[in-house]
Specification:
elongated, alpha/beta, ten-stranded mixed sheet, 19 helices
Length: about 575
């Protein structure tokens, strides 16, 4: 079939065809033998008289080595790859590899992949709707549990449409020790546990995202709000004294301004309407020498335009000011609710003197409105945790089944919340896991794999870097692997995903894609993808992908088996529904 080599360049060779043309050569692999050397190449172009083959690597001592330094000579003999040689590049040691799918080019022989190379690196799955992405991911994870014994694995799937529940809910049928846990945002879903996040575990950055902060001036406000929330939650007496200290300082500030007396009174009543205690409210008793006044009575204006009890009320207010409180910090996080946080924000507004600064006050009011909308809205249920829990115990609870056994697959169904909240929740969990893995005494001793379905909805080039100095997805993409935190992105629109995250992905499975912008983006973003691979995927059948990267010795077309059971991602049966 093959004749002599007529042309060689740095990356390819042109080989004559002898005899009848065999069109099934396209995308297959050939070996160029040259003085004992075996150079592997793939067929890229076929015409009547010649084929073009691209160099992939060399077989040395029965091992495949990627890349070709010394090119073959024109006297090299060309032949189709043998089954034994094929096993060197798409097979592998049963102990360290797992079955991934079949090769449609080579009579459906098994394609195996190195487990460490695949799962210790960031991974991306791209493809059009209906190309088989969800089926491929489901089948791949089912293969993991069928081929390996991943008892201590932590696969966390953030599921935009609730597709994966059906695929993994019976994972224990493979083995009793395998378990699946399902969190849902749908309160009417009988199969899932409602997703709940303890708000005291969230840091300043988390709240900045949750409240959609827009300027750096809002960050100190959030920081003070969280500080007060933890102080107020410490103990009733301590919290009360601290509140009184804050109110007293704010009242004194108002009393010593240059405003008119009526304006001062209005500001005082406004302050007490938002922040009050038993000692500071309009009906609180102020004790004089031999008489009493209600707090509001101290602000009656006399004929001279002054408060009738200015001395009494000033002394009363000053008695609650203790400067040592200004440096006080809570010893640790405590349990508090969204309502408690709203009160803490109200006290923040008066404690920072924001009432006197119009610009800062407006920044704070924006946060206040958004926090209130969260507290009274339907999303409040996701931030209502019944009791105090620390971060390590909370992460443990995520992977623990009701019977106390370890769940290996944890599915978060986010289909009942909008994209903005879903993005924030995925960022909160990602940061929580990143911080957790960084704290481990033995680095990467507890690996976590985060699967982001519809990743283009979350992993975007947004304003986090401007506001916080980093984007958690970018940070994990660059640093997460060494701590055992690995991304697996699943998307139909890679052009909308952060360039930083894609650039850090080492392995790719690309199902059929047609959009020219996505194809051009992939071609530009991935240095190890050739024009031939891009062209190759255009003609793929559903459920078939082009796989390449560190885990794949050569770019290979893989036909994935149908998952069993299947995820709930198939199209609506319109004809049946019409009937």
């Amino acid at each position: 079939m093959f004749g002599k080599i007529v042309y060689i360049s740095n990356s390819m060779a042109r080989v004559e065809i002898t005899g009848e043309l065999n069109t099934s050569l396209m995308n297959m692999h050939v070996v160029l033998e040259d003085n004992g050397r075996r150079i592997l190449a793939s067929v890229e172009d076929v015409n009547d008289t010649t084929v073009n083959v691209d160099f992939l690597g060399e077989i040395i001592d029965n091992k495949f080595v990627s890349g070709v330094i010394r090119k073959p000579s024109l006297d090299s003999k060309t032949r189709i790859i043998t089954k034994e040689e094929l096993d060197l590049v798409i097979g592998g040691d049963q102990a360290t590899t797992m079955y991934l799918g079949k090769s449609p080019l080579y009579d459906d022989i098994d394609v195996r992949v190195d487990i460490n190379d695949l799962f210790s690196n960031h991974f991306a799955v791209f493809g059009n709707t209906g190309s088989g992405k969800s089926y491929g991911v489901a089948r791949m994870l089912q293969n993991v549990f069928s081929n390996v014994q991943p008892f201590k694995s932590n696969f966390m799937i953030f599921d935009a449409y609730g597709e994966y529940h059906n695929a993994f809910k019976e994972i224990n049928k493979i083995r009793d020790d395998f378990h699946f846990k399902y969190f849902t945002t749908n309160i009417n879903d009988p199969d899932g546990e409602l997703l709940r996040i303890p708000i005291w575990l969230l840091g300043v950055d988390d709240w900045a995202l949750l409240l959609r902060a827009e300027s750096h001036a809002q960050i100190p406000i959030i920081e003070q709000m969280l500080k007060l929330a933890n102080i107020f939650a410490e103990s009733s007496e301590q919290a009360l004294n601290y509140k009184n200290h804050i109110i007293a300082k704010s009242l004194m500030t108002i009393l010593y301004t240059n405003q008119s007396t009526p304006s001062k009174r209005n500001d005082i009543y406004s302050l007490l309407a938002s922040c009050s205690t038993p000692q500071f409210n309009t009906e609180a008793i102020v004790q004089g020498i031999g008489y009493q006044r209600k707090f509001r009575e101290c602000f009656i204006i006399d004929k001279e335009g002054e408060f009738v009890e200015s001395i009494l009320v000033t002394q009363y207010i000053a008695s609650f000011i203790h400067e040592e409180y200004d440096k006080y910090e809570a010893k640790q996080n405590k349990y508090f609710t969204l309502d408690d946080l709203e009160k803490a924000l109200n006290f923040t507004l008066i404690s920072e003197g924001l009432l006197r600064n119009e610009k800062a006050y407006n920044e704070a009011i924006t946060l206040k409105v958004r926090l209130h909308a969260l507290a009274i809205g339907p999303s409040a249920r996701y931030f209502s945790y019944p009791e105090y829990i620390d971060v390590n115990s909370y992460i443990s609870s995520l992977v623990a089944c009701p019977d106390g056994k370890k769940a290996q697959i944890i599915n978060f169904n986010l289909e009942d919340i909008d994209d903005t909240l879903a993005k924030t929740i995925t960022k909160i969990y990602t940061k929580m896991l990143f911080d957790f893995t960084k704290r481990l005494k033995v680095r990467a001793s507890i690996p976590f794999h985060i699967f982001l379905e519809e990743a283009h909805r979350y992993v975007q080039n947004d304003s986090d870097t401007f506001l916080l100095g980093y984007n958690i997805f970018d940070r994990v993409a660059k640093e997460g692997r060494k701590y055992g935190l690995v991304f697996n992105l699943i998307s139909q629109r890679p052009v909308e995903i952060s360039e930083t995250v894609i650039s850090q992905c080492t392995n790719f499975m690309i199902f059929k894609m047609n959009h020219p912008r996505d194809l051009d983006y992939i071609r530009k973003m991935l240095p190890n993808i050739s024009a031939e691979i891009v062209e190759m995927q255009k003609t793929l059948q559903p459920g078939t992908c082009v796989a390449f990267g560190k885990a794949f010795k050569i770019p290979i077309i893989i036909k994935m088996d149908l998952p069993n059971p299947e995820p709930s991602s198939s199209n609506c049966d319109v004809l049946e529904r019409w009937k």
